[in-house]
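Task 17 of the worksheet. Students: predict the tertiary structure of the chain below and write it out as structure tokens. Keep your answer in the requested format; marks are given for formatting as well as content.
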Amino acid sequence: MSNDKSFESGKLSCNVQAIATVVHEAAQSCQGDTVALLALLRQLEQLHREIRDGAFQKSLPDNRRQLYSLLKDIESEGGWPYIERMKLQAFLANFPQEATEENSDLKNSDDVLISDRSFEW
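Model answer:
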């Protein structure tokens, strides 16, 4: 790898680390505020989508050698990036049992949502 490539790679690594630090600090400052944390997660998902659909799509390889190199990198570095959404069952597992028993209408609607495997967060 040339010095320019090495420098750019190091600069990217520093930038990514700085972003991670800022995101961790934002999450810490929102601790206990579910709505603020949800807004942070939505923003991260939006950024992921913008990068994937914009700059990443435009940078995809246009020949087999580059494609092979990219696929090899994806395989060796941990796979395809994915922002997983919380499953509704996991979300409701933290919900107090008494609250669902107090309102049978809510409990019935929870059962319907839980049984619908296509619905996920």
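Marker's comment: Helices lie at 3-29, 34-58, 64-76, 88-93, 97-102, 104-115. The first helix runs from residue 3 to 29.
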